[in-house]
From TrEMBL:
Top-tier EC class: hydrolase
Any one Gene Ontology cellular component term annotated for this protein: cytoplasm
Domain Phosphoribosyl-AMP cyclohydrolase: 33-105
Identification of the protein by name: Phosphoribosyl-AMP cyclohydrolase
EC number(s) recorded for this UniProt protein: 3.5.4.19
Binding site for Zn(2+): C81, C97, C104
Pfam families linked: PRA-CH
Quaternary structure note: Homodimer.
Keyword 4Fe-4S attached: no
Binding site for Mg(2+): D80, D82, D84
Function: Catalyzes the hydrolysis of the adenine ring of phosphoribosyl-AMP.
Metal-binding is among the record's keywords: yes
InterPro entries, alphabetized: PRA-CH, PRib_AMP_CycHydrolase_dom, PRib_AMP_CycHydrolase_sf
């Protein structure tokens, strides 16, 4: 199958045909990870509810958790106002980050809330 033409026309892609995908945990609102998608990855995600991304380093599609078991079940997908980013609301099973952390944003706090 192919991505709906109306949706495809609204997407703004980089020179490689990619756009940003942000995975946010349903319930907590915590940002888990940022990845890349292309039209095929988005279409597969919308059809299967399994988060599918494009790996720039491997040059291939990958389904989150396909090998690790750390899956993302997608509840909703939203397109931002500029059409260059999608927001996936997911149920995360296991770690979202390749380091084994629940989120990719646990490592370095560059600015923290004032007390």
């Amino acid at each position: 199958m192919a991505l709906d033409p109306e949706l495809a026309s609204r997407l703004k892609r980089d020179a490689d045909g990619l756009f940003v995908a942000v995975a946010q945990e349903r319930g907590t609102g915590q940002v888990l990870m940022v990845a890349w998608m292309d039209d095929i990855a988005l279409d597969r995600t919308l059809r299967t509810r399994k988060a599918t991304y494009w790996s720039r380093s491997r040059g291939a599609h990958w389904v989150k958790g396909e090998t690790s078991g750390h899956t993302q079940f997608v509840h909703s997908v939203r397109l931002d106002c500029d059409g260059d980013t999608v927001l996936l609301e997911v149920d995360q099973t296991g770690a979202a980050c390749h380091t084994g952390a629940h989120t990719c944003f646990d490592a370095d706090a560059l600015l923290t809330p004032e007390a």
